Amino acid sequence: MTPRRRREGPSAAFRPSIDPASVAPLPRQLYLSLRNAVAEGRLTGGQRLPSTRLAAAEWAISRGVIAEAYEILIAEGFAVARHGSGTYIASSIPEGAARIDPSDGASMQPTRRSVSAAATAILTRGPSLEPQKTLPFVTGRIAHDERTARLLNRIATRHMNYAFEGYGDIQGEYALRAAISAHLAVSRGVRCSPEQIFITAGTQQALDLAFRVLMTPGDTAVVEDPCYPPARQCLVLNGIDVVGLPVDADGIDINRLLDGTLPPPAAFYVTPSNQYPVGSVLSLSRRLELLSYAEENDCWIIEDDYDSEFRYQGHPIASLHGLDKANRVLYTGTFSKALLPSLRIGYLVVPADLVPVFRAVRPAVDRCPPSFQQRVIADFLEEGYFPAHLRRLRERLRASRDMLAGFLGERLAEHVAVLLPDQGINLTVRSTGSWDDDTAVSAAALRKGVVVMPLSRMNVVSTDRSRLLLGFSGLSEAEADMGTRVLAEVFEGGSTFCRDR
């Protein structure tokens, strides 16, 4: 019988901090390096430390030194020895364990760190994306579809051989680009060839790439007010000045540009099919005005069509890209909402004459997108599964939207007016006048286990604090029931944010 080979644990990759110039003995330096890694959580309970033979080869330290350091760890309760198995990090760390300065001197004062002005601006203005929690009304959840999950798993098994993988094409797998080109032509009226498409790690990387190529630090970009926060933050990180224009029921209002109040920007960032976060649709007349203005003033338009697949009433209005005759529009989309966020696959469509410069810049940001996920999605599209998946998903999302709107109307009509969206996976509610602080409402709801996002956190210059964003994708009836009951309790007890209390 062939003996079973013991596999190396994560600690095999650990590299101790050793200072050859230090007067501290090597065993103590190694002991402190390992102890501090345990105290800081870099080495965790139950992990097997490398054998003295392997550690000696990896760390260039004698086995005697390593054995002595391990013995100190064991004596102080940071490690345990298991006969015939090896040395393991203890499951319970000694109480009060903290990092020790290897010099054994007094703890140094914290070093002042300098970061970029752009990073400081993002830190102070916020918000950044928080880790997603499975709570009622959290945005970005995905409605699980068992049939699609089985198909994706089956397709994935075809592409699991990594033995011969190398770097892929800068723009992404051609098969996926061709499938996206065909899909966009039919569903969004986007006219492009596979050669114009760049596969990206979601929409965010597509935006970053577009902003880097099209604008120079100090340029101005016009955005919708309120605006999708990560897009605005990406502009700031690239040194771009941001100007917000208000959004109403017909989308972004560019009258201040048309009447000459504001100078022409280098670019626009817009979500015309379903404005994030308000949910309005840019009217056809305003689409044509925006395209005409961009052509006349040599402006770029970055069109974020992040959830165009989910329209519930009527036919979708043509994409800006589909109406653009002057090649001023760059179009971006994603599979995060329609399939899985964890796939991290988005795409950017650029004018044909800009392909060389985008190909030149792309490797400086990301050499190439991962091949495995691309091949899975390409097969899913090419084999015709996507349309049926979208039909099933749309019906489920429509039902979730209507269910949530019904609960809100039944239990919170005194406090909120529901703005029922024709598209997307979120809905907005506006104050009826009984409250005037969306951040206070959001904080009170979160303390009770419900997530409602205050739109004021997304304002650029607006001072409106009367709107909240609720997600309904992946929302069960039980969650909607519980969540709306909790919100009703929040408003009834809201002495700090409700008027006349």
From TrEMBL:
Keywords assigned: Aminotransferase, DNA-binding, Pyridoxal phosphate, Transcription, Transcription regulation, Transferase
MF GO annotations: transaminase activity
PROSITE patterns tied to this protein: HTH_GNTR (PS50949)
Domain HTH gntR-type stretches: 24-92
The keyword Signal is annotated on this UniProt entry: no
Xref: CDD domains: AAT_like, WHTH_GntR
SMART domains reported for this sequence: HTH_GNTR (SM00345)
Keyword DNA-binding part of the UniProt annotation: yes
Superkingdom, taxonomy of origin: Bacteria
Matching InterPro entries: Aminotransferase_I/II_large, HTH_trans_reg/aminotransferase, PyrdxlP-dep_Trfase, PyrdxlP-dep_Trfase_major, Tscrpt_reg_HTH_GntR, WH-like_DNA-bd_sf, WH_DNA-bd_sf
Region of interest called Disordered, as start-end residue ranges on this chain: 1-20
Family under the similarity heading: In the C-terminal section; belongs to the class-I pyridoxal-phosphate-dependent aminotransferase family.
Entry protein name: GntR family transcriptional regulator/MocR family aminotransferase
Species of origin: Rhizobium viscosum
